[in-house]
Every structure is written in C-alpha cells, then in structure tokens.
Design brief:
The chain is mainly alpha-helical. Helix content is 71%, strand content 0%. The protein is built from six helices and no strands. The radius of gyration is 19 Å and the shape is elongated.
Length: 152
C-alpha cells in the first residue's frame, strides 16, 4: 500500500508543480500572457462554457468515484489486486481534477487574464484537498480498516 500511496502522491505533486511552473513562466514573462487574446470573442465564450461544464461535472464525479459499485467492488477485492485497482482509480480521480486545473490556468494566461478560468482553477485546486491520498484514506478505500468477519 505504501508504494501505491507514494505513486499517487507523486502524481498529485507533479500536477501541482506543473501548475506552479506554468504560473512562474507566465508571471516572469518567459511566456507572454495574452498570446491568444486576439482570438475571436466567440472562441473564448465557448471555451469558458466548456471548461465550466467540465469543472462542474468532474468535481462531483471525482469526489464520489469510489462510491460507484463497480469501483467499490474492484477496491474491496484481495489485498494485492485492491492496491492495483486503488492505483488505477486513484490516478483517474486525481487526473480528473488536475488536468482541468492546469488547462484552466493555461487558458487564464493564454487569453489575457480572464478571471473565470482562474477561479475554476482555484476551485479545482481546493477540491484536491478532499482526495488527498493519505494513509488512512488509502486504507479506508481498500476496506482495510474494517474488521474481518469471524475474527471479532
């Protein structure tokens, strides 16, 4: 389990580091903000709508992903396969939040400081606290914290 948890933590840290590097590149003007600002106004509106919709769909799905019956059954199998499934589904859950977060941050700078994209990135970043792969969370999601029947 410790190996699985470390992989999930490194995915989380890598995504956050990518977002910070993107911010640093734009804030230090290595990349020029507003490079896509001259794109048509309709493009920005459609992209904002798509990113808002994606954010509104992925956050609840990511938070309740492990309550879906097929995912729950996969995680509660034997210990070895449970950790493999935890790695897969945990990575899916983290990427459901991290990929739109980085995209929103990129669009914020690429379109010249349109604050809607920034707010969506902040909301997604805050939702990462609810899926942080701590030791107790990993044990709980693989049902290792529950007593085994017959050994009570």
């Amino acid at each position: 389990m410790e190996r699985t948890r470390k992989i999930l933590l490194s995915e989380l840290a890598g995504s956050c580091l990518l977002a910070l590097l993107l911010m640093a590149a734009y804030e230090s003007e290595l990349l020029l903000p507003g490079g896509w600002a001259d794109a048509g106004g309709g493009t920005v509106v459609v992209l904002q709508f798509l990113m808002q919709f994606l954010t509104l769909v992925t956050i609840p799905l990511a938070l309740f992903l492990f309550r879906i019956s097929s995912v729950k059954e996969a995680l509660s199998g034997d210990e070895r396969h449970g950790f493999r499934h935890l790695l897969f589904w945990g990575s899916v859950r983290l990427m459901m939040l991290c990929v739109p977060m980085v995209l929103n941050l990129f669009f914020y700078y690429a379109f010249g400081d349109i604050t809607g994209f920034f707010y969506l990135a902040v909301i997604l970043a805050l939702s990462l606290f609810f899926v942080y792969p701590g030791k107790k969370r990993c044990q709980h999601e693989c049902r290792l914290d529950q007593p085994v029947e017959g050994n009570e």
